[in-house]
Amino acid sequence: MGSACCQAxxxxxEYEVPDQTLCGACVRExxxxxxxxxxxxxxxxxxxxxxxxxxxxxxxxxxLLAKWMFASGRDLLDDSDLIVPVPLHWTRLxxxxxxxxxxxxxxxxxxxDVPVLTNALVRKRKTPSQGRMGRGARARNVQGAFAINxxxxxxLQGQRIVLVDDVYTTxxxxxxxxxxxxxxxxxxxxxxTLARVVRDFA
Length: 202
Prior knowledge:
With about 200 residues, the protein is an alpha/beta fold. About 35% of the residues lie in helices and about 15% in strands. The protein has helices spanning about 25-30, 45-55, 60-80, 90-95, 100-110, 135-140, 155, 170-185, and strands at about 35-40, 80-85, 120-125, 145-150, 160-170, 190-195.
């Protein structure tokens, strides 16, 4: 995605804007994370690629996808101490056999030399798929779904974290996780995703 975007959530603007410009949504309420960036716009041209990686065992392309993310989020990674992926519930991980966010995080760690903590978070309950949910329903769906892994709590104290996920749709998931990480002692949360849904409601 281009550089003309909201300084906070990364929503792309159609024209060049001054540095530090916020979109309308972030002016009304700043997200619980500091900045968010994505490598791709999620649309008809990228959907098959993203879904193939996420659901169809196309794990061999994780390195390529992470390189795109690294190029888009290098400034976030340069300003971080730790990379943390959004977790899957154990039942979904068992059926899918891999966490796509963790695969991307591990590849980003290799590219950036930033340590990766794959077990920093746990998903306490299995949330329904959010594919057909609107903004409000998504937020309610993930409320209280995440927690700090007690074994990783000390490793998060005072850390600047890059939170990694595959797709940013409304931001409900990364907002919920960012709040948990902030309560867990992290000092800065930046979000880096493979793709970003661009809609009028942003």
